[in-house]
Each structure stands twice: as C-alpha cells, then as structure tokens.
Amino acid sequence: MKALIALFGRSPFKPIQAHMEKGRACIERIKPIINAIIDNEPAEFDRLFKEISDLESEADIIKNDIRSHLPKSIFLPIDRRDLLEVLDIQEELPDTIQDIGILLTLRPLKLPAGMKEPLNNLIDEVVRVCNQAADLVQEFDELVETSFGGKEAEKVLAMIEQINADETVADGTERAAAKKLFDLEKEVEVLDVIMWSRVINKLGDLADSAERMANRLRLMIAK
Question: For the whole prediction, is pTM greater than 0.85?
C-alpha cells in the first residue's frame, strides 16, 4: 500500500479546493470592506483588512505546499502544468482583493452618494462570478472520478458557460460604474476619482480572473 501511495503521490485536488475556499472567504469580504470606507467605519475596515490579509497569507501557504509536494511525474487525469496554471489563476483572487484593501488605505477617500449604487452593483456582479468559479473548483473530485467526461463534464461546461455570460454582465456593470464616476467628477477630488477608478478596475480584474480560470478548465476537459 505504501508503495502505491508513493507511486501516485498525494492527491492535489483537496488542497486546491482548500486554497480556493480561502479565496472565496476573501470574496465575501469585498463588499463589507468597501462599504466600511464609504460609511466611514475605520474600525470595521481595519478588522476586515486584517482578515483578508490573514486569508491571503493562508492561501499562500497552501499554494506553496501544493507546489512543493506535487511530483513532476504523477498519474493524474490532467497535465501537471494545467493544474499549476489553475492554481496560479486562483491565487489572483485573494491577491487582488488584498490589493483593493491596500488601495483603500492609501488616503482618506470620499464617494459621492450617486456612486454608491453603481459601485455596489459592480461588487455584486463580481462576487457572483467569483463564487461561481469557486463552485467550479469544488467539482474537481467528480471530474476526476469520471475522467473529465460524461454527464459531470457536461455539467461543468454548463457552469463555465454561465460564468462567461455573467462575466460579460460584470464588464458592462464595470463600464457603467466608471462612467458614473467620471460623470460625477466635479463632485469629487481628482485624487479620489483616480483611486476609485483603480478600485473599479481591480474589481473588474477579479471577474476576469474567474473567467480565465473557468476557460482553463474548459481546455482541460477538451483534452
């Protein structure tokens, strides 16, 4: 039995799923931390920022452990390089969310009342896409059992199509939020416009990362 375990190595799928759940936990904190800035709640912001930083560090530990223990030669139903690429894209989620938190610490920011709704709409769309990507990673076990084929593959491909469709909606919501921000630029200091514009771009990056991860999984199924 030990020889068999040594031959096949540790399954990397559970750690990859655990890593994705750290990203999901960060995703759940995007809206609260941005609204802590909007509502001028510094103590709440500090609490959430620490939680995000801790989660990002925990995700890093899991990522490094996977990289250290994934053998170069291992019997897997997918290519090792594909697996590592999915991991790298996953890592963009907690990293980007931490980046958003850092941006929000650089200077006191004010947001005109007219921006709160479009910004929250964007956050909701981005969170939806990222959570769908997290759900997708949780399908790895079933995909492995079916050798990336059959009804499970069809289910996952349908999930990927939904992610692509919702990411397109998120793109439109991002443009609407950016346009509203610049429409209101006379009500906002120039530096605030620049900083909120960067936050909006980073939110868009999250949805882009989720879509890229989904499309990478599509290619894995196609192989």
Answer: yes
